[in-house]
Write a structure and sequence with these properties.
homodimer; DNA-binding
DNA sequence: CCTGCTTCATTGAACCTTCAACCAACCTAG
DNA sequence: CTAGGTTGGTTGAAGGTTCAATGAAGCAGG
């Protein structure tokens, strides 16, 4: 299959623990703000954000799920809740009878306005304020390369 | 309160999307392997790993929860399942009547042996093989600094 | 045009996490 | 020594995610 993968040495382990620490704790930290300001979790917030910025204001469910880093099943459950709450609408895609398109409602846009400023502020506090421009560039590059591997 | 937090510019947004993409997708990716090889999720795996390496083979529930990046309540539920499955034991702390100590059983150690090699291999494939030593050092430093902010 | 494969999406059940309530043990000021 | 506060841990219920099953719509070959 593959060569013996050597165990992580002390320095690698320290890096990994910090890395996985960020991965595990960041979502919960972000959700405290989103829940408080707009009663949303991070996935729901992503759904609203991507719909807001979408070409034509709509996205197919499966494209939206990919953008939000979640499964289509997860999105389907979440979309039902968001639709029941009047934050989004769904309707059949005219071009492809299998697809469903989602669109933000005015109420959804309002909800986003409640969430976004605090969210951006928090993201800055936690990440961007800690890195200078050069470090930020590096960090982005690392993340893109690792993400590419995860998606492969 | 605080100054106007400027919106993320295009480059910052690209960095953030890659970063949050890793944060959201990595746990699921790791859990596919852990579930397949040892029928564990990542949190359960962490519990076993930290108990394995603990001084004296035991840890207090609350210390273990912190190390595993989870809440005490979450650990309490997980520990009950792991204990029912015979992978860990719990017993009263002799020094402090409020505390509970957890310890790995032989079955737990065996389970860990099933999970660990594939886990380490996957972590290497996804992260460390993508970064050269200098980049890895940087990455670890960034993660530590961001984690410090999250924990503050 | 019909058969089988693939894609898109939804659903219910099982499972896991969170949240709030609760309890016991410890600590400390008066 | 004891009343009130804090720390450590567990629990049940509510809510969210995953997994597998289902079904409709499109597509491609015979």
């Amino acid at each position: 299959m593959s060569d013996e993968a050597p165990w992580l040495d002390e320095s690698e382990m320290a890096t990994w623990l910090a890395f996985i620490g960020v991965v595990m704790r960041l979502p919960g930290t972000l959700e405290v703000q989103l829940r408080r300001d707009a009663d949303l979790n991070h996935f729901e917030y992503s759904v609203l954000v991507f719909l807001e910025h979408a070409e034509g204001g709509t996205l197919r469910m499966s494209d939206l799920a990919f953008l939000c880093n979640g499964s289509l099943s997860r999105l389907s459950h979440v979309a039902r809740r968001l639709e029941n709450d009047g934050l989004i609408e769904r309707f059949a895609c005219p071009d492809d009878g299998r697809s469903t398109l989602a669109r933000l409602t005015d109420a959804g846009r309002e909800r986003l306005v409640k969430a976004a400023p605090g969210h951006v502020r928090l993201v800055r506090e936690l990440v961007f304020d800690e890195l200078d421009p050069d470090e930020m560039r590096q960090m982005g590059e690392f993340a893109k390369r690792i993400l590419a591997r995860i998606q492969a």
